Amino acid sequence: MTHLPLAGRTALVTGVSRRRGVGFAVARRLLTDGASVAIQHYQPHDLDQPWGGDDVDALVAELRDAAVGDARFMDVEADLRDGAAPGELVRVAVEALGGLDLLVCNHAKSGNDGAIHDMTAERLSAFWETNTRSTLLLTQAFAALHGGVAGGARPGDAARGAPLPGPVGHVIWMTSGQQDGPMRGEVAYAASKAALAGVTATVAAELLELGIVLNTVNPGPVNTGYLDSDSTDRDLGPLDEWRARTPFGRFGEPADPARLIAWLVSEEGSWVAGQVLKTDGGLSLY
Questions:
Q1: How many domains are contained in the chain?
Q2: For the whole prediction, is pTM greater than 0.90?
């Protein structure tokens, strides 16, 4: 019998709106590893991008077919800019799957960004609400399922409680390459992602008291369509020249971060905690 490292586990993956996206690759990998999976999608965001939207019905059908054995699958459309949406999304996923062991916060707002000279309160808030606030609220709702309560910590408090036998859940956040160098013209996006990388250690320490393991993944440059000549809004010439100089001569593919995430949320990856991990094939070294 094929080994299924996530058999019996339940997962929520956000930002699964395109078959070329990282979220789709993660959801498919978790399903083929035996997990039951709920996905969140929000096609209107992609319709405003150069790469356009996907056929969500076809996407859902492919993922449903990827489920193994008795594993369940469900999807829900949700606009995570709404402050109430994260908690409701977790509630719906738990109701459909019977519980929730894994949370992968893959969703992100991109586009309509700019340089520091272009920033407005509204633009900054839009990226904060989608990329940062909703991730924190999703994590809070997930933690509440495993015993998290408000008012449990003050500045400087040390961890309390007896040692735990093992993890009870896993959370994955997604950051970007803002720590590797400038991201000119993407100030709001880089700021929203830097906030997640910066607070990873703090939230990871708090979640560990419940037995929840949090890690943040920087997938590096992954071609989800925005690096193709027919679906990009940028000059690819310099990027193609840079890519050709790198050891493997390619950008990342969605399956690359998906493999790391599937390992991190498995029993084998559970000793890795509170880290910001980069999976980019060495691209950031060039």
A1: 1
A2: yes
